[in-house]
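Chapter review: from sequence to fold.
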Amino acid sequence: MARQGPTTLEDEESCPPPPPPPSSHLPKPISEPPLRLDSFPPPASSRSQSSLENTVPFPLPPRIRHGSCAESERFATSQRELTDADSRMVLVGDPDRTDPRLELSGNAIRTAKYSPLTFLPRNLFEQFHRLAYVYFLVIAVLNQLPQLAVFGRGASVLPLAFVLLVTAVKDAYEDWRRHRADRIENNRAASVLDLPTGRFRPKRWKDVRVGEVLKVLADDTIPCDMVLLATGDPTGVAYVQTINLDGESNLKTRYAKQETMSRAPDAHPFVAANFIRCERPNRNIYGFLGNMEVDGKRVSLGPSNIILRGCELKNTAWAIGVVVYAGCDTKVMLNSSGAPSKRSRLETHMNRETLLLSALLIVLCSVVSVCNGLWLGDHRGDLELSQFFRKKDYSDGDEKNYNYYGIGMQVFFTFLMSVIVFQIMIPISLYISMEMVRLGQAYFMSGDTNLYDESSNSRFQCRALNINEDLGQIKYVFSDKTGTLTENKMEFLCASIGGIDYSGGIAPPQGNDKVHPVLDVDDQCWKPKMLVKTDPELVDLLRSKGDTEQGKRAHEFFLALACCNTIVPLVVETSDPKQMLIDYQGESPDEQALVYAAASYGFLLIERTSGHIVIDVLGHRQRFDVLGLHEFDSDRKRMSVIIGCPDKTVKLFVKGADNSMLGVIQKGIDLDIICATETNLRAYSSLGLRTLVIGIRDLSINEFEEWQSAYENASTALISRGRFLRAVASHVERDLQILGASGIEDKLQKGVPEAIESMRQAGIKVWVLTGDKQETAISIGFSCKLLTSEMTQIVINSKSRESCKKSLQDAVAMSSKLAAPGNVLTGAGSARSLLALIIDGTSLVYVLETELEEELFKVATVCDVVLCCRVAPLQKAGIVALIKNRTDDMTLAIGDGANDVSMIQMADVGIGLSGQEGRQAVMASDFAMGQFRFLVPLLLVHGHWNYQRMAYMILYNFYRNSVFVFVLFWYVLYTAYTLTTSITEWSSVLYSVVYTALPTIIVGVLDKDLSRKTLIKYPQLYMAGQRDERYNLKLFILTVMDTVWQSAAIFFIPYAAYRHSTIDGSCLGDLWTLAVVILVNIHLAMDVYRWNWLTHASIWGCIVATFICVIIIDSIWMLPGYWAIFHIMGTGLFWLCLLGIIVAGMVPRFTAKALTEYFMPGDIQIARELEKFQDVNAATTSEISMSTLSQQP
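The C-alpha cell string follows.
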C-alpha cells in the first residue's frame, strides 16, 4: 500500500478521477486517417473562410470557435438528435403560429402553492399526512356518535381545530407572501418587438409569449429563456451574471450567432432566422440543444447561445433574443425546488415512544372495558333501575330498550369511549410546540454574532427548521477541501519555467512600476486590482534577457497565462478619477490568479471580445485574434486556445492538470526540462499548492485548416456533438512543447486547525473528500491538523479491482492490529495507535456499490481520519452513504460548490458555505454559513443546547399528558367503569392548550444547561448527545413510572381526604385539575437550568391562569359544576391537599435527582458544578475529571 507518484495526478477540485480503464471513456485521438469532412454531418453553410491566403495564416475576419464545453459534455441532453417527439418549433417573431400542436405556457409564473379555492382542501390534505392528526380526527368523529359521546361535541373538536388553524394561518401567510412576489415579478416591463412597426414596445412579463423577440438593456434581468440574435458588441458577445440562477457572481460569456449578427439593420436582423428547433423544456441549466434556420441554412445552437430567465445582462449595452421557453417552462422555474425534506432523529425516535404510549392507551382502555363487562355481569339484575344502564323505557307505555345494547356491545362501546376519554395520552400539542421551539432556536442561531461572517457579510441561515436538534448528535463530518477548509482565494506563488524553479516571490512595493506595471490610457493610470508576489530574477529575465532561450520561454509562458482563459477584464473606477483598476472577472479563481500573475509580470490583459484580446506586453499593446477555444472538461482535464499572433503565426496554448498534460507533451525533446518540471511539481504539491502545466504548439497553415474544417463539421453535428468536439480538441492538443508549471496557494481559512481539533475532542470524526491530488490533500491535512505525525497512514492507490481488493484486505488486517486493545469497530481504548486512511477516487470506483464496500467500511470506521483524494461528486455522496446506511451515527456534510450538492443532500445534516464557487451548495443545504470554523459554536454550543432542550421537551410532554390521563383512569375505576369524568370537558380541552403549553415552549427555546464558554472549553461535553443521554428508552420508562406515582398522589390524597364528605365530584374535579397543573409546572421548574423573567412568567403565570379559568368555567351557570370551585376552595383542607400532593408527588423525583447528581454525576453535572463554584476562565482542562470520557462510543 505504498503511495503512488504525483506524476499521474491533477489539481482540479471538481474533476472526477480517471475511471478505469481510461481508454474506454476518453475520446480516441484521430490519427489514421486524419479528420475528414465525411466523418461528420454536412456543414450548415459553405466554408469559404477555410481557405487561407498565403500571407495570412488565419481567416479574416477572425471568429472565435467555442468547443468542448464542460456543460455540453456533462449532460446527455446536449448530445442527442432532436426529433419531432422531443423538440419544439419556434417561429421567430410569430408567436401565434409557433408550434400550434403544443399548448405553450405563457410567461406568468406562480410559486404560490394555493389559490382561494384550493387552500382549504389542499392545506388540510397536507396537514393530515401526520398520522397523529388522523388519530385525533377519528377520536373527534367517534365522540359525535350518541352512543359514544363523552365530551360535548364542540369541545372534542376544539384541540384538533386549534392545531389545524394555527398551521393553516402560518401556511396562508407564507403563501400570501409568495402571491405578492409573483405579482411583482409578473408585472415587470419587457421590450417586445412589434413586427409591423419594427419597434420595441413595453409589455408585461406575464404577457410575453414563445416566439416573440425581446430587447434587454444593460443591468436588466432576463424575463425568459432566450436564444441570442444580436448584442451591442459587434462580435456578438454578451456578458451575463447568473447569481439569481446558480448563485455565482462571476460574469459568463454568451454569444449571438454571426449569421444573425451580420444582417443589415434595414433587413430586420432580428427575424433573420426563419425558425428555431430546440429541445423540450428540461431542468438542465448547463445544457441546450437546438438549431436555427437562417436564409435556408441550418446553424447549430448550444449552451453558449442561450440566456436564461433570472440572469442579468452586464457590461453589454443591449441584447436581442427570441423567446424559446417562457414561464413555468423556463429552466429556473423547473429547478425551483427546495432542499429535500429531512426528519430529525429525535422525531423518528419519538414515533417509537408514541407507539409505546399507544400500547399503554390500549391497555388502559382494555382494562376499563373488561372491568366494565365484569361489573355488568355482576349487576345484571339491577340494570333496569340503574341510572346509566336502564334496560327498558316505560315512559310511553310501550316497553322498549333504553341506552342498553347487551353486555358485548356495552364492552365494545366502553372501549371506544375510553379511547375518547384518554385521547390526550398522545399529545397533539407536542407537534405545534416542537415547531415553535425550532422557530425560536432558529431565530437565536441566525442572530448569533459568533456565526456572522464579516468578509462575506453573511449570517447563519436555517433553511430546514425540522432538524435543529440533530446538530447536537453529529458523529461524522464530511468536508470538502477547496473553499471549505481553504479560502478558495488563489494566490500565484511560484512557477517552473524551462525546468527552473522561480519561487522567490516578494510583494511588490506600492508605486513601483517596474514590478507592478501601470498602463497609461487617455491620461488615466490603469493598474491590476490585485498585487501578486513577483520573483526578482524572473522579472529581470523578462525585461532584460528576453532574447535568450530561457527569456523566450518565460515570455511565452506568461503570454499563455494571459491568453488561455475566459477572463473578462473590467475597468473599475476609484476615488481618484485619474486612477483606474483592472478587475479580472472569471468563472474560476485559478484563472483569475493566473491572469493577475501575468499582469504583475508585465502581461496585462486589457480587452476581450469574442474575436480578439488585447494584451499590454511589457509596455507594448498587442492584439491577438482568438481563433478557437476548447474549454475545460473532465475527460481531457485541460483547456486550449488557438491564437493568431501579430507576427502572423498561429499558436496553440494549452494548460491543464499534470497527469493530463504530461501525456500529450512531445516525446524525445527537452527531456531534462520535463524531468526538472516533474520534480518541481512534486515539490509544489508537497507544499499544498495547486499545480497546472503549460504547453505550446505552433500550428502550420495545413494543421490549422484541418482543425478548422473538423471543428466546423463537429459544431454543426446534431448527434453526439459534444463527443465530436472533444475528439477535435484531443486531436489538436498533442505534440506540445512544455513551457512550465504554476504553483497556486489556496490558503486555509481562519480557525480551521482549531476547529478540527475541537471536533476531534468532541468525538466527531472529520473526513475530507476532495478532488485534489494526493500530495496536495495530505499537505493540507497536516496544515489543518487533520493529520499528525503520530498517525499511521494507510494508503490505498489501486489501478485494478484485484489490487484494490488485496489492498483493502491488508488494510483490514493492519487496522485490526494497530487498533488493539479496544473495540475494533470504534477504536476505543487509550493505548491504541492513531490511524489515517488515505484513498483515491480510482480505488473508490472499484469499491463503491460492490462487495468491497463492507471491507472499506471496516477499515474506515476504525481510522481516526479518512482522506479521500481525486473523488467525483457522486463518489462523495457514496462515501456519506457508506456510513449513513450502515450505522446509526449522525452524519454532517459541509461544502461550498456545486460538486458538493450530492454529498450535502445525502447526509443527515447538510451545510453550505457562502464561498467563491457560488451558492449552489447553499441552495441545496439545510443550514448555511460563511466559515468552516463556525461548525464549533454551531455543533458544540447550539447543537448541544438544541438537543438537550428538544429531548427534554418531548419527554416532558409525554409526562405531562400521561399524568392527566392516569388521573382520569383512577377515577374511572371508582365510578363503575362508566367513563364519567369529574374534570370538566373544558378543562380537559384547555389543559394542553392553555394550562401547560407555554412553559414548555419557553424552556425549550431559552433554557441552557451550560454556558457557551464551558461548552467551547470542554468539547467532550458534546458526547452526551452522541450517547443519547437526554432521550432514550430508559428515560422514557422512568418517566412513565414517575407519571404513575404522581398521578396516584394527585388522585388518592384528595380521595382519601374527601371520601366521607359531602363534596361532590365537580369539586374534586376542580381540585384534581389544579393539582395536576401545579405539579407538572413545579416538575418543570425543578429541571430548569437558567431562570429568567420569561421563564418565571410562563410557569407561575400558567398556574395563575389555571385558577382564573377554573373560576370562570365554574361561574357559568349553564355548565356542569356551577360554583363548585367556590365550595371547596374556601376550606383549609383544600389547600392542605394541594400541599400534600406537591410534597408526595415530588419527593421521589427530588430524591432520585439528588442522589444521582451527588453519587453518580455525569459530565454535564460536573461541568455545571464547576460553573457554580469555580471561575471557568481560570480553570484548566486537567482540573475536570469527566466521568464518561473513557466510554466514548
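Two observations follow directly from the output. Confidence is low (pLDDT under 50) at residues 1-80, 511-515, 822-830, 1176-1193. The chain is about 40% helix and 20% strand.
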